[in-house]
């Protein structure tokens, strides 16, 4: 009987990594609120619904990348409440009437979201509403050449993460856990 239990336990232990999340870091729950009311996710040369899905997919990827940098066991809930992409859709920039997204300094990227980060014990690490706008986005990335789509938005989020969220996570990790002790 004991041999069977040990073999079963060993087999279960070997299969566990295949069942677990391969990305280290925090579990992310990302939601979208009233996307049709966002400031600017206008498509230039694509259908609105396809472009909207592409924007959402990319921003979800950015948040997942940030979550993977957080400590394992943490949970991060975020709700995107507004997006204003870098640039502005212009129908007359090319002189053909074909819409393109023109990137100029006056049309900086912005994103607004509510979030709550909890540690492995369920304690709140940080949370609240974030209103990000990158007024200096043109000085950080070159708008010419092979700049990947939504690079300005990615850089804005990564800068916030590195300067605001990561230091709070490090500060929280240095404190003793506030997990309540069971009464005896």
Strand arrangement, major sheet:
1-2-5-6
Largest sheet: 4 strands, mixed
Distance between the termini: 37 Å
Q: What would you call the structural class?
A: alpha+beta
Question: Unreliable runs, pLDDT <50, ≥5 residues?
Answer: 1-22
Radius of gyration: 22 Å
Structural commentary:
With 184 residues, the protein is an alpha+beta fold. Helix content is 36%, strand content 22%. It is built from 4 helices and 6 strands; from the N terminus they run H-E-H-E-E-E-E-E-H-H. Strands 1-2-5-6 form a 4-stranded mixed beta sheet, with helices on one face. A two-stranded antiparallel sheet has the order 3-4. The longest helix has 24 residues. The radius of gyration is 22 Å and the shape is elongated.
Structure characteristics:
single chain, 184 residues, alpha+beta, four-stranded mixed beta sheet, two-stranded antiparallel ribbon, 4 helices, 36% helix, disordered N terminus
Q: Strands, helices and their partners?
A:
Layout: H1 2-19, E1 27-32, H2 48-68, E2 75-84, E3 88-90, E4 100-102, E5 110-118, E6 124-133, H3 137-140, H4 151-174
Helix pairs in contact: 2-4
What would you say about this model in short?
The chain has helices spanning 2-19, 48-68, 137-140, 151-174; strands spanning 27-32, 75-84, 88-90, 100-102, 110-118, 124-133. The protein is of the alpha+beta class and 184 residues long.
